[in-house]
Amino acid sequence: MKLHDVHIICFIVLIVGVILLIWFERKYPYRKGISFFREGFWTDLLAYAIVQSFLLKILIFDYIIAPIQLFIPIKYMISVGSWPIACQLLFFLITHDLYIYWFHRWQHANKILWRTHEAHHSNQKIDWIAGARSHSLEISINQTIEFLPIILLGADPIIIPIKGLIDGLWGMFIHANIRVSLGKLRYIINGPEFHLWHHANHHEVFHANFSTKFSFWDVIFRTLYESPNQPSSWGLYYKFPKNYFAQHWYAFYRWTFKPREKKQEDL
User: Mind telling me which residue stretches traverse the membrane in this protein (predicted)?
Assistant: First the structure.
């Protein structure tokens, strides 16, 4: 199958996946009363998910990965190109997810790195598109480390769009406002039941539930938190800028905000 065809198929699957997630959110909401066009929706959809993603794709592949390739020729690397496509994909899914777990955990433990991650936790109403809100510096680091090995290790080019599709859909799924249980599988595959707790404004989960795709990282490294109850509030315990540019600048320059007051709808 041609690479162009793979891109088209991935785009179609992405659109279908988004429609299904939105339908499930309306049909089986984890948290009732969240409007589809909730506060910050257009910032997350347009500024983060569309414009930022498009621009960062150009930056990462053309101005970060491409120059690195000039200094690290592929011929000196171990190639995975002869592996079956499924094995290549699984290899990069697992290794990158392990990296994300530890980097994510470090962001919560380090005051400087937290500044590149706090925007991601600033939404008080988590839904399918809320996960797109991530500082461009954080995305640049993570996606460079994600896609650079795929290229340097000589993987089949179709791995990039397929993995990008899985990342995108999985990211939307774990943030989706859907009441769903994966049963015992939840200790292997990550879903909303664990990740929505990670976004809660609760002290007990600030250093818990770091996994993205595979929840077994939290199980192995003893950072899993689960509860039969639902969080009382989500987001940050302090006020955070609502404007896209201010959210980025706030990571480098702090100005005083009063702690936000909990509204009745947060309780």
Answer: 6-24, 45-71, 83-103
